[in-house]
Each structure stands twice: as structure tokens, then as C-alpha cells.
């Protein structure tokens, strides 16, 4: 079938997974469903959760072929837990494991070998980078990878689309009864938002920590009532690598120019009033926007109601200085935000379900005025691709992109028109990861395009004298400089499924041609 | 069948409710079950939860005959919400409602009339006092009342023994999207622990508040993701009445004597070491124990690891002064504790599932060293009755009594040997609400009895020179003063079922004879 973003979703895929094609952002709004529930084991003893090794934990949880194991990625490129657990799984001779992670990155390159060996046959993740992405696009993973947004992942768990057999939760601190936090130890990651949902819906829950602390470890991100076992290891991650090159400050003139355009877009849109809400990602231009907003806030004498998302130092500084009333945090992107969530009384941890699940009774993204996001590609329908690279290989992550785009009053894509002679604006993106009807504004270094669905914004920006272009004009400029790109050629085999946040199918990813 | 506390549970009751008789405190420890799950409606709009009236909320939630409505009792005798909602239900002509409350008291006398009218045909509660108790014992409620401990209630909800159609949550503050707290408004009750479970397992959730605050209301006890509607009313409760006569300080010489005995019992038991954990109830002697413990703490130079439970001013003072490391709070019993939980960084709110559910992966009561509790009656097997009065009428509440007795290393009952010429110690309690095998020590004004199952304690107390008696000796003293009481006569009809915390049946309550 051809879905609402014009993508041909093979019927066999829809049938195999019992799914529908994407049918618009509000298709499932206001509908009823019964939530999923785990099968759990009661514990009336006040001790006995500490186990000497991950192997012991896997055996106690009854690990067996075909299980689904879950992980969080709060340590990003510094995570050790996935590899520690998966090595142990492999050593036990277990096969056919599905890894359901909130994201996977370069830290998890060793998993590619486990894919070759059939230890891992399924990947469900937001991000897939590095060698895992190559293994997927090369057709070496047995089952199609399932790519979900952050909101889509927790939706899938809460609706029972995926049932987690064992959740492994790397925790900066834990007590011996499983109360776990993202702060207080030698390896701090700030919040444990992604794992909060896993802890509630997995049959078995194992906390993995490198810092056991006195009972009770409060306030607990993960509660003892959901934890079966606690395993102490030497190190759960390297917090220095939470700041990967995805999250960086910029001195790049082009990025600063886009940031300035973006700040003007925000200030001139009708939502720029006291109490507005805001999210930026961790890209260079996006981060710069945080700082460039300040004079506009001062000029208008207003402040943000809340900032949300992946949180970085510039936003924590705005909080400290009173420009933001609350930070609502689902992921810390740097050391400053880790410190802030531990110490600043205006900075709060939330679960990823609270952040972005489209099927609960109201996520934070529903209340968002502005979001600033990136794109690898964006096409004439404003469809965005943040997952497949220009060679067709999986190397990105939708993350909260589709969730915040759908939820916000004004979603802004900031991207250079060209990257290494590859146009960002194009006729048709390789893979649709955020539907164009949810994308409102595109800011490039060559001008600003507004989605024609948003005549309100177009009017406001025209009046404010912003450098407006149509998206076709931007595409034409790009093509005039570097030429129209050759279409990629793919094999027939579906190696990845891009789920919309509501569980319908947005697009499929096919095997690359060798 | 005759259950493990020697009570004859009618087979028809066991069959009707698909239950087993009580079979020991650890009968279901380590067993597996699938958790319950609600049927919920998604909301992708960022607004629209505010409704103008309770009637509108009831209609939007599809109220109809036979539904189960739930309530918390954090306002105790000052609660307005049950009556406000139930009046509205009655006015809509709805019948056959089951009220599933964490407790009901004198504030809810108007419900007795709704029982007569068939609006209310089921009561599931920990406490039942006042006119509702009379209506139950008089046989006027259509279905047997189900009496559960606090842990047993949340267990029943989480296991699906009771499915809540609509949860009403009186909240001291809420924002328009349903983030609700027990502090910050004009009617503060401190924590919303009882409602935390209802919010997760009810199909529909309505927050009722008398103080709407700016979004987002954080840290939220009840999260927006679980709330369908918010209704503002003039007042949700009278916080002055949180301190009812159940919670009081004492000058009574007899109570002070028992408190002193109790403090010595605690100090001489082997668990009195640095980091021990502790709970007292709100009775006169129990409260006095908090203060009498201090010299023993000072003498031994130790402090409590955590105090839990219903929290009162004396415990908050011990926290402030450094004698307690953490307070873990499932209910505030007075204004001082409400203030403390809002402001003291060592004082934490937990859910009632975290407090006491025997079927989750580990509740706080499992980690308890000492608990100090009351009793209306205690018999030669140490079985305790805290529900039926000397006239056989329901007028009490197990509350956390059975949970903490089962979980703690040393459970201590403090009760005068006689009350108005009625013996507390007796051959056989009218109703078993806490099994004797979970009760370790009885402190009376005539001496201290230790359960023979606890030879370890008996040895320690004998060595310490405590005034020990056997429970038979205490019974003999009581009977020698006031005579042996005449056995109560009951009708045949079962009007109440006392569930053990694990869902098995501990006892039944029969209709009183007119």
C-alpha cells in the first residue's frame, strides 16, 4: 500500500507485523487500547537481590534463545553495559536475541559480530550508527531492524508491540534493593528516563551499577518494586563520552548564521510570549540558538515556561539565570546538565513516556511551542530523513524528532543547504523518518522556507522581513551548485522498518547494493 | 474450610470470589503473576482536560451502573471528595456503584444513605468507621464489604482483583494537564501515595483540585500521562482534620508507661543498631515512643536508617535533628509532616505499592526492623483484631498493620490490658485482621508478652530484665479484673470479608444481631 507520505509499504510487512501504513499524525488520537503488562515474580524478603555477576543474573532471569533484552543509551558513546551483557549472553551460547535499545551507537560496534554469529537477530532502536548500521544495511541481520522514535519506542512497550523479557539498566548508583539513580556515583549520566518504562513493562529487571550506596537511594529513578536483581560491575560507562560529536558547540560561521535565522524565526512566530516552551537538539546550530535567544527574551522581558528534551549546558545556564522556569529532562547531553539535574531545584527528571509517548493521556511534547531540529535530508513535501545517509546506509536516529515535530506548535529544521557537495533539500528523501505535515519551517544558510500548510507563520515571517524562500527555490539553488544527485539503487530486501510514533509504518529501508 | 489462623471461611465465599483461605504470610512469596492493565484513551492534544464540573467528568468517563470508583483518604476525617463525587453520581441516577477507597471514615457518613438507596452496593476499603460501618454490620450493603490492608489494596489493584473504572484524586494542587501534588495549595495533605497506584491502573482518572497552578506542577505525585480530566472545586478537604482523634499526643500515665516499655523493647532487641528502620502508628502510646527512643539513640550513638509509614511531627523532628537519615512517607498524619515532606530534602514521598504491596518485587515494609502498632483485641495465638469493636460492629482499619507486622523483624503491639472494662487480651479475637504468627511482642500496662515463636527476643528481653508475662498470664489478669466476656452473637449472613494482604481470606465478618 502507499501510505500518507507516499511510501510504498510492502503488504507482506504490514501483514507479518499486523500493522497499518502511516495515516497522518492524529490518526490514533483519542482511541482506546489496553495497556501491556509484565509477568513478574513477587519478593517478600528484604534482601537477596545482589548477584555476583551478569551471568548469574541472566541465568536467574531464565535467559533463553529468542528473548528480547532492553537497554538505555544515557551514556551514549560511553556505554559499557550493552557489550558487557551481550558478551555474557554469547558466552552462554544463547542465540536469536532481539536487542531493544533506546539507541545504539559506535560504542556498540562489537554487536555487529554477534549479528554475524546469529546471537543477535533483531534490533529495535531509535538510533543505529557505526558497524551495526552497516550490518543492517548490508542485509546481515536476520529480521528487519525496527527504527522507532523515542516516543514510539515507549509506546511500543506500553502497548505490547514489543515485550521485554529482561531489562538491563545501567545505573550510576543503586542500593542493594534496586533503588537506582543516574547520579551520585563515579559514572553519572544524569537521568534514567528511557529505562523508567522498561522497568515497568519488562518481566525481569536487572540494575547494573558501579556504585552501590546506602539504602534507600532516594529519590529513585528506578524503584525497588520493579527490580529483580542488582549486579555490581567495575564500570558501567564513560561519562566523558556522553558528549559525542553529535553534541557540540560551534564556531562555524555558517552554523552561527543559521542559528541567528532560527532565533529570529522563534522570536517572530506568534508563540513567542511569556511562558512559551522550547526544545533544541544537540547539534551545533541548535545549541547556538539557546544563546542567541537570550537578547530576544530580554528585549521582550519574557521567560520560558519550560524547556524540555535532551538538555545541554546553555539551557541549564538559562535556568540558573531565570530565563527558564523549569527544565523537564529526558536525557542529559553533557556534564553540565548532569550536574544541574542533580542540584538545581528547577530541573526535573521525567520518563520517556512522559516526554513523548503519543498514546498515553498526554505527553510533554503535546505542550511544546517550539522545537529546533536537524535533518540529513528534507524534501519538497517537508518530509525529513535523519536515519539513512547519502549512501543509503543506516547511520542516524530519529530520537525525539518525529515526536516533537508532531507535538509542537512550530517545528523548525535547521540544516545547511549542502553538506560535502550533497544537497540537504531534495526532491524526495531516501527514507521518511518525520512526516512533512509535521514540519513547519526549514532554516538553511541560503534562506528560510515555510511549509505552505502554515500560512500563519508565513504571514508573520513575511511581515518581519525574514529571508524567505520556497522549498523549491532552495532545492533549485542546491541543485544548481552541485547538480541533481543520482538516485540511490537498493536491493529488494527490506532490512529496516521505520515506524511512525503511533506504530503505523512510515517507511521501509532496503538492503544496499554491494 | 478452616484456614491457617483457624477461621472457618465459607466455601461459597471462596468460590464466589475465586479465593483461597489464608495459608501463612509467605504462601505467595516468589510466585509469578501477570499484572493488571487499564484500558486507556490516548490524548495528543496539549489541552482540553479541564472540565467545568464533576458531573461533566463523570459523563465524559462514561459513568454507568455497576462501576467501581476509587478514592484516597489523605484528608482522613477532613475529606470532601468522596461525598462531592457520590452526591453527583446519585443525582445522575446511577446505581450499584462499588467504592474502592484506601479508607473511609466519619467524614463519609452520607454514604450510608446511598447504601440504603442502592446507589452504593459495594465497599472495598481498609478502614470503615462511623455510619458506613453500621450499615455494613447491619446487613444493609448488598455485597459483602471487602476489608484490605494498605498493601493488600494496591496488590488487589495491581493483580486485577479489583478493576477501577474511574479514579478520583483529590489533589492539593494540579496544573491544567493533570500534574498533581499533595502540597502547594490551600488544602495540603502532603503526599498522594494511595492514589499513585489508582492513577496507573484505573481506566479513567480525574484529578479534583481546589488550586490550579502554573504548568508544569513538578515534582508531580500524579503525572499528566495518567490523567484524563481535571475538575476545579471550591474545596477538596479540611486539612485541619487530618489530625483526627486517631492521631494524638498523650499525657495519659498508662500510655506513657506503655511507651516506655516499648522503647525498652526496641532498645533491647537485637535490631537496635546503626541504620535500623522503624515505623510507628498515630496512636497515643505509639507517638510517645518516638520521643522516648531519643535517649536510647543518644546513649548508643546510633541513628535510624529510615523511618516509614504514616508520618507525624515527632519523627520529622528526629529527622531534622539528625537521628533519622531518611523519612519514607506514604501518608502524612499531621500538619508538621505535610510541611516536612514539602521542604525537608531527607523526607520522600513513595507510593503505597512501594510501601507495602506484598506481590511486587520488594516493598519497603520488607526492610523494616521495628513497627509499633495498636490493637482492639489480641488473643492467645497473638492474632490481632483492629476492625470489629466489642459489639461486633465494623469500626476500624487494618491500614498498614498486617503489612508491617509481616514485613518487620520485630512487630510490637502496644495496647492497654483493659479498655472501659473490656479486656484487650482474650481467648479468641472476634475478627482476625493480622495473623498471630506475624506478631512478635505485646506491650501492655500490666507487662510484656513475647510470641513463643520468637525465642530470640524472649531471651534478649529476659536478660534485660523487662517485665515479661506470658500472654495467658495477661489474659488471666484481665479476666480476673473484669470477668470473662460473653461471646458475641452474630447472624449467619457474611457482611464483610477480611482479605489477607496476599489476597487469601483471613476471616469473614457476619451481620450483627439486632
UniProtKB/TrEMBL annotation, chains A, B:
Gene3D superfamilies: Glutaconate Coenzyme A-transferase (3.40.1080.10). Keywords: Cytoplasm, Lyase, Transferase. The keyword Cell inner membrane does not apply. It catalyses: citrate = oxaloacetate + acetate; citrate + acetyl-CoA = (3S)-citryl-CoA + acetate. One of its GO terms (cellular component) is cytoplasm. Pfam families: CitF (PF04223). SUPFAM superfamilies: NagB/RpiA/CoA transferase-like. It is found in: Cytoplasm. Its EC number is 2.8.3.10, 4.1.3.6. One of its GO terms (biological process) is acetyl-CoA metabolic process. InterPro entries: Citrate_lyase_asu, NagB/RpiA_transferase-like. GO terms for molecular function: citrate (pro-3S)-lyase activity; citrate CoA-transferase activity. This is Citrate lyase alpha chain. It comes from Clostridium symbiosum (strain WAL-14163).
